Amino acid sequence: VGLVIFAAGHGSAKERYNMWAKEKVRYIADKVQRDPYNAQLQALLGDAYFKDGQNYEAEQHLKRALKLQPDFAEAHCNLAVIYHAQSRTTEAREHYERALSIDATLLEARAGLGTLLCRNQRHAQGIRHLETVLVQDSGRVNARYNLGVAYHKIGDFKMAIGHLERVLEQRPNFPSGRGALAQANFGRGLKQLQAKRLPQALGFIEQALALDGTQADFHYGQGLAHLGLEEFEHAATDFAAAVEIESDHVPALHNLAMVFELIGREREAEPLYRRVLELTPHLKTIHAARNADYDERFLLK
Q1: Which of 90, 191, 197, 251 has the highest CB neighbour count under 10 A?
Q2: What is the pTM of this model?
Q3: Superfamily grouping for domain 183-300
């Protein structure tokens, strides 16, 4: 959410931030005490409390601001941000929409509403709001990240990749940026894998692994692409990497055993099939484990 400010850095820096936030609360509270019917001051105090982590007090002062000035768009937006952070979805949406009905140019409210809608599975509506925000201000990295994630959710991996790459260009250390881009590349790779466009699938999955090599499913997907291309040694390496990360990854164990048989390493395949049998009680025999089928459909569940 665009209005949320996160304290970061070493402990001393965080302490300085907290001291500054509390001092700001005291400073504005003094002004409010002298002028309690000033809606602007009430809203400023609510914002100061929010940044100090005191959500209840923030909510009360923003409500007072709105009682004094019902058409105060920024106060509606900031109250929506608090409700959004507390997962009070209906109230958050109501105040975002009220803010925009008063001031349609308020990008903080439009970005917040777009994010809220996307996170509540209303992707088409949310995407429209986020796209509008970026037309007006292309530098809003949080909005672009949320837009990229929304495109991923609806399966438009090409658009997701484009926006998430832009996020990392604008802010290389954006939290979760690399992970989200890795997942989008992997999603696009799976689509190519389904379509049997194996070299293309391999290219996208390799990009995913370059961004995040810790995901067992990425290595497994790469193994499937190599297997389809009959690059058995590479496939064995990929499946083994998946098992190294996730020792009970049944599809990787099974396919590693199968590849070992294909390349003449039958003695190494046998214990892997036995491990598959241990992990899948519905398969009653080694023969059943050997004949099980694990392909990209496992990754699409």
Answers
A1: 251
A2: 0.84
A3: Tetratricopeptide repeat domain (1.25.40.10)
